[in-house]
Amino acid sequence: MRRPIVTLAGLMAAALLATSCGGAGEVEDGAAADLDVSTGVTDDAITIGTHQPLTGPAAPGYAQISVGHAAVFDYVNDNGGIHGRRIDYVVEDDVYDPARTIEVTRDLVHTEEIFAMLGGLGTPTHSKVIDFLNEEGVPDLFVSSGALMWNRPQEYPLSYGFQVDYTKEAKIQGQYIAENMPDAQVGHLYQNDDVGTDSEAGLNQYVRDMVVASEAYDPGNTDLGPQVAALEEAGADVVVCSCIPAFTALLILEAQRIGYEPQLVVSSIGADTATLTGLLSEFAAEAGTEDLPAEQLLEGMIYTSYLPTVETPDDPWIQLYSDIYDEYADSESPMTNTTVYGMVQATMMAQALMAAGEDLTRQSLIDAVESQDWAGPGMVPFASTPEDHGGFGGALVSQFHAEDEPEVLQEARVTDREGGDITEAEVERPDPGEVEFYGG
Amino acid sequence: MVSLRNHESTAPAPRARRGGGPGAAGRWRALPALVRFPLAALAAFTAVLALTSLTGPAEDLRIGSVGYYMLAIAGLQLLIGYSGQVSLGHGAFMFIGAYTMALLVLHQPAFPLWLNMLLTVVVSCAAGVLVGAATARLHGPYLAGATLALAVGLPALTVRFPELLGGSNGLAFSVRGAPPALAGVVTTSQWQAAAVWLTALVGLVVLATVNAGRLGRRMRALRDDESAAALAGIPVGRTKVTAFLISAGSGGLAGACQAYLLGTATPSSFTVALSLSLLAALVLGGLGSMWGAFWGAVALVYVELWGQELAHSLSLGTNVANNLPIVFFGVLLILVILIWPQGLHGMFSRLAGLVRRGR
């Protein structure tokens, strides 16, 4: 019996070693993927895919992004498509779980054979597939997250950011506070991940000496009591909230509960007032205090933004999007600013596909993206040059009013994510009719 | 050393002896464990290789997932099914394994994979000894409670040390794929699935061998009656801690395989729900047999997948869709346990028995 045991053990060991000779972390740089291909493009269709949280904790609110994508693509398809090709839009549910994101993204690339990825959502999720997408040569347009990581053209030549990154946005917030509220005592409430650290880096460039309290929250813990108490204790009369919508709402409710009334300055990710109104009513109902008027709680909130919002129904793009939403959206909930976010992404994807021309390859899409004049729905300039994949480069500062349209306190300004200046930006915003994003 | 033959405490299975002399099954059982288990593992490995050569990259990932879940559940099987200690915190050991692997790949890129795997086993065994020693005096629900605390508390470490552990976004890294010499023959996803299965099978062989030997007998004696075992001279505390250690080691190794396969370690993958799912999958697969670990792992990966597909195809509200995969799993668990108390393994052996008798 000795011989087979030895032979087998040897075989197993050899196989194990063979599986893993060489350092596990030593990844040799393979040749760049061939972009001169038209994977996912046929004579009459282009397949575009994305990963989104359709179920799970992040789904309320964010599930609207893919509704917006689908509605705009349906509209494009009904108006001649892209040079006669229809857009097949595939959305996969990743439950905001990175392990699932990896699985569904492989599915999208290998099984669905998508031509490009549009607006993959989330920092913890998308950061786990960005290497894969770039290695496979899949254009990774308009990532739905403000992390700085999407803007690394050397490392990730095919990934392009979309929303203004957290540092740029916080710099603009900081400068606004320093210029307009010079005596303020600033408190900062932030999410304990890159949203928080990147925002703090920007904020500190302008209001370092004014900050009296910095409080972090964990997205898994919905009790903001200690943080809000600490902000009040420190005497903060302006609170900058680098939070997702649920935590903006929790902050407002907790402050209201203890009778603390700071001026809120909220980042675009947490300031979708339509979503906030819904969340506030929902949380109030859970606490048994339905009589709190949600809109009144938001009165006077200052926020940064870079897209047109549903609170300005006269904006020509919002008019178009409302019409598209009514006709095509497969959803019973009202259109929110998160829907608009998805619709703008889809519009810009369609613009780039139109510009890429009839002979569509991944390379021609990338060329079109990098040379595109993005005049369209956006309220601030958009960067997608070979050197800068940063997306929207700045923000407006506005104030919410319950009974009225929001008031623009400061027009669009742009900046960089380092220590550069903040400058005013000229933005050209043509009407939808003047922008080419569909047509045979 | 006493003989390494299998000493199952259950009644011997009826042997098929119709035609063909003593029968292949009988001869198979007569082989010593040290030959039988590696042979079975080799056969399983070949089957996995054959399977991945037919499937696409997305499916390879799921096959790999079955592999590491199987290892984790098998470790739990040893602890719960054989030594009678209930742990609700095995996700914590997967967490330790995954992060050890991630940190090794990120900070020691020159270390080969097998060394990383070995180091992970060492680290998680060390954690297992600590936890096992602290909890060896606890029984039943108290032990379960203590291990549950571990599963709840440990992932919070990532937020405490964001510089090292990447905060709630976790760590991401790339691992070496299929060697260039095999380009075109084996895809990276096949290669990774095979590496995970090889590791899992080696782990399983160790677990099965342990179970078939003296330690396994001692553990079963403890499980059935602790006082009687102590009177018979079995060192109760040491045996319990050893079981916990081996089980923690397999959990850690499973976590390392997951990290290797997915190229990431994220705290949100190691919630309490994972620990509870492992336990539920073990019960569903069948307590008391290593086959139970396999069926449990298959159910864990595919039932959830089908549940999600079902939820999407029915276009339900988010609240319903969120919970449907869990409900699906729960109903399956209840049904299987009601009809076949030995779990899926019991069901399959019963069916196999029926077929044999019907011939």
Describe the structure.
Chain B: Residues 1-23 are annotated as: Disordered. The complex is a heterodimer of chains A (440) and B (359). Chain A has 440 residues and is of the alpha/beta class. Helices cover 40% and strands 16% of the residues of chain A. In chain A, helix 2 (59-78) crosses helix 12, helix 2 (59-78) runs parallel beside helix 13 (337-355) and helix 9 (245-257) crosses helix 10. The longest helix of chain A is centred in the first third of the chain and has 20 residues, at 59-78. Chain A starts with a helix and ends in a 16-residue tail after the last strand. The mean pLDDT of chain A is 87. Chain B folds into 2 domains: 33-270, no CATH class; 271-359, no CATH class. Helix content of chain B is 73%, strand content 1%. Chain B is built from 16 helices and 2 strands. In chain B, helix 2 (33-52) packs antiparallel against helix 9 (188-212) and helix 4 packs across helix 12. At the A-B interface, helix 1, helix 2 and helix 3 of A face helix 2, helix 3, helix 4, helix 5 and helix 9 of B.
Biggest interface: A-B, 49 and 60 residues
The shape of chain A is globular
Q: Low-confidence segments of chain A, ≥5 residues, pLDDT <50?
A: none
Structural class of chain A comes to alpha/beta
- Describe the sheet with the most strands of chain A: 8 strands, mixed
Helix-strand pattern of chain B? HHHHHHHHEHHHHEHHHH
Helix content of chain A: 25-40%
DSSP, total strands of chain B: 2
Low-confidence stretches of chain B: 1-21
Helix percentage of chain B: over 70%
**Looking at CATH, which topology of the largest domain in chain A would you report?**
Rossmann fold
Rg of chain A, alpha carbons: 24 Å
What is the multimeric organization of the chains shown? Answer: heterodimer
Largest sheet of chain B: 2 strands, antiparallel
Task: Count the E strands of chain A.
Answer: 15
Strand order of the largest sheet of chain B: 1-2
As a whole number of angstroms, the C-alpha radius of gyration of chain B is: 21 Å
